[in-house]
TrEMBL record:
Belongs to the aspartate/ornithine carbamoyltransferase superfamily. OTCase family. This is Ornithine carbamoyltransferase. HAMAP family: OTCase. Its EC number is 2.1.3.3. It catalyses: carbamoyl phosphate + L-ornithine = L-citrulline + phosphate + H(+). L-ornithine binds at residues 165, 229, 233-234. It is found in: Cytoplasm. One of its GO terms (molecular function) is ornithine carbamoyltransferase activity.
Length: 309
């Protein structure tokens, strides 16, 4: 715990499997205490600032309520209302934030912005999604997998769809925790090449496989977990028509799930588009854990906040 105090949470890559393990352990304990009605309040008197350059339902609510449950306070700031909107620099803003706040959570258009903020802030900076990664989601996903499957190491997780921010963090997290992964994307929608290389390295270190494919059926074979995300991420909206046509055949539906293990689990970070990346029958079926997953955002982030702040 001591080593995590004051640290930023910008990407899964920056955390060791031991640190992730510790956070998952704390999250499970906090969830148990919360459900039993006797949660502790380790962040009394502390304030988390939250800046969202993009829309959010889960991230904003789970951080706000999570801080409240930890005895602290969350302060929501609209970037267009901050002086950033009139040209005040990221560096100056980060230094000013550090005078008032105990931590900050940022959802940004560009990963570079969050990095620049973190470089100039003396308080922990948590990445609440960028164009590159979504580490808070991956942490909650591991917690969910642990709950549903009773273990992490040795499982096979298959991601079907866009090689995007969610895929980057999820596969990195899985690789670090000894989960075999396969990803199937249409040609042209592969993961970022550099990130894919670091995931491969992490997988190698854990002694698991990471396979990049363009055939969803091949990828889905023997899957313990089938995971997908939207085909059109925030910021990709002008490509909607092209993407919907390029992703044809990548829907997780009853045909595709038949290639997975019979006790496969379906996961999605949400928001979802039924009839695009997933059929209603799958996401609303009894092997889907998407709302447990959404709920776990709060429990995982509470552990993260308590450790960093
Ligand atoms: N999964 C996720 O981050 O959801 P929001 O965009 O609603 O925060
Ligand atoms: N890949 C999606 C995730 C939303 C939580 C996006 O970036 O819009």
């Amino acid at each position: 715990e001591k080593q995590l105090k004051g640290k930023d949470f910008l990407a899964i890559e920056d955390f060791s499997s031991e640190e992730i393990d510790y956070l998952l352990d704390q999250a499970a304990k906090m969830k148990k205490d919360f459900l039993a009605g006797g949660a502790s309040k380790p962040l009394e008197g502390k304030t988390l600032g939250m800046v969202f350059e993009k829309n959010s339902t889960r991230t904003r609510i789970s951080f706000d309520v999570g801080m409240f449950q930890l005895g602290g306070h969350a302060l929501m700031m609209n970037p267009t209302e901050l002086q950033i909107g009139r040209g005040e620099s990221i560096a100056d803003t980060a230094k000013v934030f550090s005078e008032y706040l105990d931590g900050v959570m940022i959802r940004a258009n560009s990963h570079e912005m969050v990095k620049e903020f973190a470089d100039n802030a003396s308080i922990p900076v948590i990445n609440g999604l960028t164009d590159k990664v979504h580490p808070c989601q991956a942490l909650a996903d591991l917690l969910t997998i642990q709950e549903v499957k009773g273990k992490l190491a040795g499982l096979k997780l298959v991601y079907i769809g866009d090689g995007n921010n969610v895929a980057h963090s999820l596969l990195m997290a899985a690789a670090k925790m000894g989960i075999h992964t396969a990803i199937a994307t249409p040609i042209g929608y592969e993961m970022d090449a550099d990130i894919a290389k670091s995931i491969e390295k992490a997988a190698e270190q854990s002694g698991v496989t990471m396979t990049q494919l363009t055939d969803p059926i091949l990828a889905a074979k023997e899957a313990d977990i089938l995971y997908t995300d939207v085909w059109v991420s925030m910021g990709d909206d002008e490509q909607t028509e092209q993407r919907l046509s390029d992703f044809e055949g990548f829907e997780i539906n009853d045909e595709l799930t038949s290639y997975a293990k019979s006790d496969y689990t379906f996961m999605h970070c949400l928001p979802a588009h039924r009839g695009q990346e997933v059929s209603a029958s799958v996401i609303d079926g009894d092997q889907s854990v998407v709302f447990q997953q959404a709920g776990n955002r709060m429990h995982a982030q509470k552990a993260l906040l308590a450790a960093l702040l």
